[in-house]
């Protein structure tokens, strides 16, 4: 193990960029290449490899590249690599809890049920069917003023019904 941090820093300065480029060419993954370079340097530190070290008649650079290549091979053979799918986007988008939305919808349905049929029909057609006053009046065969009046009183009754169920505003 190398105890002088300057030796490891020098080894990193001399070889890390070339090592990273080599791993990127092997894998095409820049982030994974950073991980491999880090692991390779850690192993060099543990083994006491320096630029002056000759390990089995090889230079430190050759040792580093060999270790990096073996790390890439080991990763490609791993079960995790075979099961992972690389994607540009997350497969699912994070969504909030839908429980509140379900309860809100149930409360609105219950409040709508408390309206008179003529008020409920106008409110539902306007807000859920996105129909205009004119379209609703033609469909129901009533004057537009009647639709506006039913809408006004229907919304007022709906607001009161929701307040009774704990919705404030």
Automatic annotation (TrEMBL):
CDD domains: Sigma70_r4 (cd06171). GO terms for molecular function: DNA binding; sigma factor activity. SUPFAM superfamilies: Sigma2 domain of RNA polymerase sigma factors, Sigma3 and sigma4 domains of RNA polymerase sigma factors. Pfam families: Sigma70_r2, Sigma70_r4. Coiled coil: none annotated. Keywords: DNA-binding, Sigma factor, Transcription, Transcription regulation. One of its GO terms (biological process) is DNA-templated transcription initiation. Residues 11-80, 111-159 form the RNA polymerase sigma-70 region domain. Gene3D superfamilies: 1.10.1740.10, Winged helix-like DNA-binding domain superfamily/Winged helix DNA-binding domain (1.10.10.10). NCBIfam families: PRK09645.1, sigma70-ECF. Belongs to the sigma-70 factor family. ECF subfamily. This is RNA polymerase sigma-70 factor (ECF subfamily).
């Amino acid at each position: 193990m190398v105890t002088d941090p300057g030796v490891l820093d020098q080894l990193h300065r001399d070889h890390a960029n070339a090592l990273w480029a080599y791993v990127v060419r092997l894998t095409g993954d820049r982030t994974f290449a950073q991980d491999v370079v880090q692991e390779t340097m850690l192993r060099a530190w543990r083994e006491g490899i320096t630029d002056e070290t000759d390990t089995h008649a090889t230079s430190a650079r050759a040792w580093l590249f060999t270790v990096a290549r073996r790390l890439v091979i080991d990763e490609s053979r791993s079960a995790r690599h075979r099961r992972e799918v690389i994607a540009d986007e997350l497969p699912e988008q994070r969504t909030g809890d839908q429980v509140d939305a379900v309860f809100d919808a149930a409360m609105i349905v219950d409040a709508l049920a408390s309206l008179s049929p003529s008020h409920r029909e106008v409110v539902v057609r306007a807000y859920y069917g996105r129909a205009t006053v004119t379209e609703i009046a033609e469909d129901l065969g009533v004057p537009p003023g009647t639709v506006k009046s039913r809408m006004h009183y229907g919304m007022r009754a709906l607001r009161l019904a929701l307040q009774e169920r704990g919705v404030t505003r």
